[in-house]
Amino acid sequence: MKTRIFFRLLWVLVLVIAATAIATDLAARRGREPFVLIGAGAGLVVAVMIAGIGAQSIGQRLQSIVDFAQRVAGGDLSARIDQRSSDEIATVAAFLDKTARRLQHGFEELETSRKELETLLNSMQEAVIAVAADGRVLWANERMIRLVPSGVRLEMPLAETVRDPDFLRTVDLAAKTHTVQPARVSWTAVGRAFKVTAAPMPGGGAVAVLHDLTDIERVEKTRRDFIANVSHELRTPLTSIQGYAETLLDAPPGDAAVTREFLEIIRKNAARMTRLTEDLLVLARVESGEQSFKFRPVSADSLLQDALQNFQEVARARGLELEIEHSSSAAVNADPDAIHQIFSNLIDNAIKYAGSGTHVWIGAREAGQRLEFFVRDSGPGIASEHLPRLFERFYRVDKARSRESGGTGLGLAIVKHIILVHGGNVRAESELGHGSEFVFSLPLASAAVEVAS
Question: Which CATH number covers residue 340?
Fold first, then answer.
């Protein structure tokens, strides 16, 4: 194009020179040659000047197009060129400017889509990681970054981020076979189990999504253990009831003492099943939130006096003394009936295991913005390895003795969940040969957060 314009200017110059030559020839024939030569020379100079100015203008316009193209090639899509003429140069500049605008709009849409996708992936509960065909990590969402103890290293081999062989094998197989590969992976480094789905990417490599199975499997194991424990707890009294009932049916009538003894055994086992069923229902209601609680400010002293009045005679019948060791006038925001149930379970356990001729002490003491209640006995104590599991359902330190005493194995689990609903916590402190102390703390009424019933 530049050449075309140059030749146009050259053509104008040639016309000027030709016209000057013709005029000079005519003037020479008429005797005016000197004047014509001067005029022709002046015209030639003017033509050359006009051609130079035009060439300079064209060169500047073309240079602005070159500068614009260089900026676009360097990634500056906001560059613009403005040519207000209507010749070929302006037309080319307009097309280039329009192309730059379209490129900028396209890149802005791509960037917006990338940010939306990144936000979506980062909001996922699942961990996501993308790997190139050569095994380098391209990208990982925030869940994946938090999951890896040493952090995700981009542009580095996947094996430096995830060292689990099953995971690496699954991702590699998806990339090589171009098929979706599911797998279950136990990632030892983070102590969790995952369902991994690795899918091939169009440009090579693979993307892996890790769905955490740890909590699901823990809940499933808890459910299986719970069913097994309930079945076991029910089977023992049911077997006893069935056996003694069949014996009574088969035995000849006449021995009233034996009949009464067998019926008493049947009654005791039926009562044990009733207690187990009631405890299961209470625990289920408390855990699910269906149990309603009537919270109100109640003093520690009134709660302790209630416990003393209700269980003092029971303790004396077992040869023990129940005493209030320390009391407090401070109040907690609680359901008195629920606290009574807590004391019932803790004092009952203390009486069972303390032994005749010993003491059981109850009390309350302030601890900052909380009030700590305790039940302490002078019994044989509990080995330290049992303390962390005492509040689990059906966990027993001495299984045989617990069943003989009619325990269901759910009392301390009920205690824990009632206290949690009250915004408190519970713990056990014990040493073999030095008794046991169960402590539960509740927020003071002035500092307690109101709990919905």
Answer: 3.30.565.10
